[in-house]
Amino acid sequence: MFKLKKSLGQNFLTDKNIINKIISLEPLINQRIFEIGPGIGNLTDSIFNKKPKSLFLIEKDERFFKILKNNYESNNNLKIVNGDILNYNLNKIENSDLIVFGNLPYNISTQILAKFIKLDKWPPFYKKIIFMFQNEVANRILAKHNTKDYSRITILANLRLDIIDSFKISKGCFFPIPKIDSKIIVFKPKKKISFNINKIENLEKITQAFFSNKRKMINKTFLKLFNNNLFLAKKLKISLNSRPSELSCETYYKMTEHYEKLKNN
Ligand code: SAH
Fold first, then answer.
1. Cβ(103) to ligand 1 under 6 A?
2. Which pTM does this prediction carry?
């Protein structure tokens, strides 16, 4: 028996009904599938039974990699990489219309989502993402402005992704049972992005600047970022005594557009 690694977020989804519910969110027959952190293959087996065109797996734990390799070795439409998704270059994927699954390792789930948002090419190589998050993290992604959950990842995700579905999964569906419930979120990439942001890093810089003082009024941060440009605040209808969570996603995107003009990049 294996000793599971907490550091790699190893909580396996064992509830068959939930596994079926997840893989039925999209017809998988003849589709290209990408799965992050397959573990011992609980989701993978069910995906495979749906006869996808190809299946690409990336698993960091060498012990699971070996098990998966043994189980699937004879299938040439399946590729398994023993690696870290955070170091994997997604920009080199040439196929398109992939469906991405991941019961994600909890401690890096926002980083993984950010990586799928910050691709060079847009529309990206995938047509749908079906990710499992810890409930609290999911609520941040799904949040609206003016709520306590509204955060940097809400703003980043909404720039390029549409959220088309989400539902809760009880912690009892996993082994070992985690402390908190989870949530599935289904994303679709936006075909057309209505804001002209050249570098997503600039949006991240702006949200970092504001959200590192989440409870404070935005005036100091705004004036520092925009060289005391009160006219811009007026133009964007930003009240400088707002708190960061009171500004809509669109306002952050517009601020980033202006920031890029100002910095000329
Ligand atoms: N999908 C399986 C396992 C989920 S647990 C199931 O639902 O049963 C999360 C899995 O992600 C574990 O197998 C863990 O080893 C793997 N993992 C953790 N960090 C990873 C990383 N950086 N890159 C790829 N896989 C990772």
1. yes
2. 0.96
pLDDT tens profile 203-243:
999 999 999 989 999 999 999 999 999 999 999 999 999 99
Per the structure block, which two tokens stand in for 15?
């509830």
Ordered by start, the domain boundaries in the chain are: 6-189, 200-264
**What confidence tens digit (pLDDT) does each residue in 9-19 have?**
999 999 999 99
Whole-number Å distance, alpha carbon 110 to ligand 1 midpoint, is 14
**50 by DSSP, 3-state: which?**
coil
- Ramachandran category for residue 146: left, alpha or beta (phi over 0 → left; psi -120 to 50 → alpha): left
The H-or-E segment that residue 189 falls in is strand 182-189
Output the residue whose Cα is nearest ligand 1's atom 11.
37
CATH topology classification for 6-189:
Rossmann fold (3.40.50)
Asked whether 134 lines ligand 1 (CB < 6 A), one says no
Listed residue (19, 158, 190, 173) closest to 101, CA to CA: 19
Question: What six digits make up the tokens of 195?
Answer: 């804001």
Please state which architecture CATH assigns to domain 200-264.
Orthogonal Bundle (1.10)
Q: Compute, in angstroms, the gap from residue 108 CA to the centroid of ligand 1.
A: 10
Residue 252, C-beta contacts closer than 8 angstroms, at least 6 positions apart: 155, 203, 206, 207, 210
